[in-house]
Amino acid sequence: MRVLLVEDNPGDARLFIEALREAATSSALGATIEVTHAGGLHAAFAACRDSAPDVVLLDLGLPETQGLETFQRVRDAAPVLPIVVLSGLDDEQTAIGAVREGAQDYLVKGEVDGRLLERSLRYAIERRRAENEHARLLEEQAARRAAEAALAVERERQERQERELAAIERLSSPPRAAITGQTFGLAALREGAPDLFAGLVEDYARLLDLALEQRGYRVEHDLSGRLRDIAERIGFLAGGPRDVVEVHTTALHQRLRSATPQRAQALVEEARVLVLELMGRLVSYYRSQPPRPSRQSAA
Q1: Helix, strand and coil percent figures for the chain, each rounded to 5
Q2: Alpha helices, DSSP H, located in 109-193
Q3: Which of 102, 112, 185, 258 has the lowest CB atom count within 10 Å?
Q4: 196: pLDDT confidence band, cut at 50, 70 and 90?
């Protein structure tokens, strides 16, 4: 057991050191007690750092500080160390106050023998060890609860994102739209013009990146102009809302595969706005210029 004795009175310090040596000699445990003596607060701080004590035996009356302040300074400097405070007969209430603030025990000078001193110090070490272990378990539990809460939030976000994507994908191939397309000989762009479809997906995916850049860095991009260009290309190819949704869904899936959770959430939010505007741009295109009767003639 390594004891740091913080006592400014040389006579008292000598008595405590002798009592500890006597206790070590007569201990049934055969324990070794090493004592480091510090005569003041600053020497105590240095000893806490350099000698790695197991317990601090602290006189509350030091040249630098008195009473509870002495205990508070040492406790703050070495928060994990057990501290047993020493007091005089006329200062016992202060020692009790130190115990209330975290000291493991207190001893009254002149009423302590070696065996009592050793027992008090060992008790202080075990009690502090138990307190530290309890605090560690509480921290682990809090961290585990926080991780579980974060995981639940992330799971809910992913499920919401998957629901949104599934809803968009359902819109991309409704039975009625498929029958209409087959009747007029208009296959979806994905099947009828795969190379052109891939180009639209690539441009739209780049547009998603620009939307995030504009959102995160306040950099202005002509998103509306780029959307108008994509809408006109879809319209020129006699594409419709189904093609818009397929371009949107394919590009969004590509970007989500490698996105962090935060980026994925931002992508989904920006994509909602972009796909609605793209739909509106396509409607404007058809209002200003009637669509071609077939995709073959458009090509």
Answers
A1: 70, 10, 20
A2: 114-172, 175-183, 189-192
A3: 258
A4: very high
Which amino acid type is present at position 78? A
> Average pLDDT of 94-100?
89
Residue 226: phi, psi to the nearest 5? -70, -40
Residue 259 token pair: 């996105």
Tokens 């004795």 sit on residue: 5
SS3 track for 244-290: HHHHHHHHHHHHHHCCCHHHHHHHHHHHHHHHHHHHHHHHHHHHHCC
Look up residue 214 and give its two tokens. 């504009």
The pTM assigned to this predicted structure is: 0.49
The pLDDT > 70 percentage for the chain reads: 85
- Phi then psi for residue 58, to 5 deg, are -120, 120
Domains of the chain: 2-139 (3.40.50.2300), 173-298 (1.10.1240)
Longest dimension (CA), the chain: 110
> Contact 85/44 with Cβ under 8 angstroms?
no
Sheet containing strand 105-108, edge to edge, reads: 34-38, 2-6, 55-59, 83-87, 105-108
Taking the C-alpha atoms of residue 277 and residue 287, their distance in angstroms, rounded to an integer, is 15
Q: What is the mean pLDDT of residues 180-201?
A: 76
